[in-house]
Amino acid sequence: MLFAALLCLAWTAPAAAKERWLEQPLCHAVTPLDAGDAMPKSFTCSGEPEDYQHASLWFRIDPGELDPSDDGVVLAIRNTRFDSLRVVFSYADGTVDRHRVRSGSFGPHASIGGQIVFNAPAREARLTAVTLRFDRLASTDLLSMRLMTRDDSSLQSTALAVTIGAALTLLVIGGVYNAFFALAARRQFPAWLSAWAACMVVWGAIWGQLNLFVLPGMAGVMSAQICTALACLAVTLATVSAVTALDDGLVPQRLRMGTLALGGAIGLFGIPLALMRSGPIVALADILGIMILADLLAVAVALGIAWRRGSREARSFAGAWSLPMLVLASTEFIDTDHWLWGGGSYLLVLCAAAWQTLWISVAVSLGYSRLRVERDMALSAEAQAHELARRDPLTGLRNRRGFIETVSAMFEQARAEDKPVALLLIDVDLFKRINDVHGHDAGDSVLANIASRIIQWEDASCAVARIGGEEFAMMVSGLPRPALARFADTVRKEIAACDHSSAIFGVHVTVSIGVAEGAQVDDFRSLYRLADEALYSAKRRGRDRVEINSAAVGADTDHRVAELV
Ligand code: GH3
Ligand code: MG
Ligand code: MG
Fold it and tell me: Rounded to the nearest whole angstrom, what is the distance from the C-alpha of residue 468 to the centroid of ligand 3?
């Protein structure tokens, strides 16, 4: 929203502003560097200047209708590569106003938005000429100069500062967010995105000349060179982040590698281009422009292919990349220099980068929250499957597997706390006969009735299970021997008292119980073996009775404790 408002303002502002862009051909002259301060005798007002990279290049500009009598005139020049620049404002009354900046020292002439500004003070007399002298200018093609009234200049500076500040803030937020996301989700592409955002922040700060507040010595050539290198590095990082966001196999390997190689080549290409002070800078910049276009195309094709194959990341990246790609590509074809209060293509790219990081951060967050929901669902399905695998479907009690898992831990803990622990194996007496006489369904119903009675004993110190066809088990902790014997017999009697009349009529169903105490053994398996022996003994001794290790409580003995043979 903020950007939309600023962009609208940016397009309407120049129409209202009284500004004059100084385009070639300008009246110019070239003199040797050591020719002194004297102005050249003649200026050529047609064609383009030549052989100026190791000389002094002069421009003489007629300010036209711009009259400094109201509030003064401002000459704004975009920072580029030169050694020094002198500006002379000449007035009709013969007075002159001189200014000078050097690479490494712009002083008060440095302005936010990559501009160097020179104020022609308001005088009674008319401003008749503006003369500029660049020493060792790298290229006239990189020059961007305009004259405007002072009011317009301060308005535009404010707009530039606000836009750059907003874009940099968004980039910082996006960069930090993606760095955290890369750490939290252990994904590679947000790390590259974060690096890209960091690169854009540094680039934006240096291009906008914010760095000069702390490091004024970076003014001029050094800043321009770092910006070139960073711009190329940013393209590399953005390419890597987009390609690594797409899963292996979604994009043909050759396209993937080719795009990465192109991105890497752009980063490397930026180094010599950044270092150049003279020579065919513009020709090389054109080659770089073609490489960037090819890179954008390769990334667009990779995203398109991955999108068609159903990649969510590709969709998010396409949304994020579309605007910066259009902006970057358009700056190759459209002259955007006059846009955005003189910020031109640089500010456009910075705003597009802020848009990109914002879009991707939102897309990544949505994708991550979707992943979390899917993961939670998978975890709960897994927990459900885990639980089902440990439950008996007929009775709902734990099955043998679930019981062993639960009671092994219980057994260990009770032993560690030196608490008595006991295992009760409960087997229905003569169950086969019930099946044979009343049918399998009636047998099932009896088992379910017994289970619903047994489950009532379950609590923190008692685990119950159906561990076989007509066999149940209970693990109890904290019961000393006399209480254990009474409990086991209560279980026997309560099960015998169950009402099965809905399934079988007039049949008394009893159980035999074998009990083993944990004090006698070190592990659960041994405990189980002892309980099984006790159960076997209870069966042999006539059923419907309890055997505790070497002792038994039974119906026929009127619950006396009997010795196990
Ligand atoms: P004992 O007193 O010696 O234990 O005699 P029993 O008949 O109970 O023992 P046996 O091992 O001979 O028979 C157990 C029967 O339990 C045999 C099998 O058909 C039946 N059974 C096992 N699982 C189920 C089940 O899920 N449902 C039903 N209805 N019957 C089952
Ligand atoms: Mg049995
Ligand atoms: Mg049985």
Answer: 10
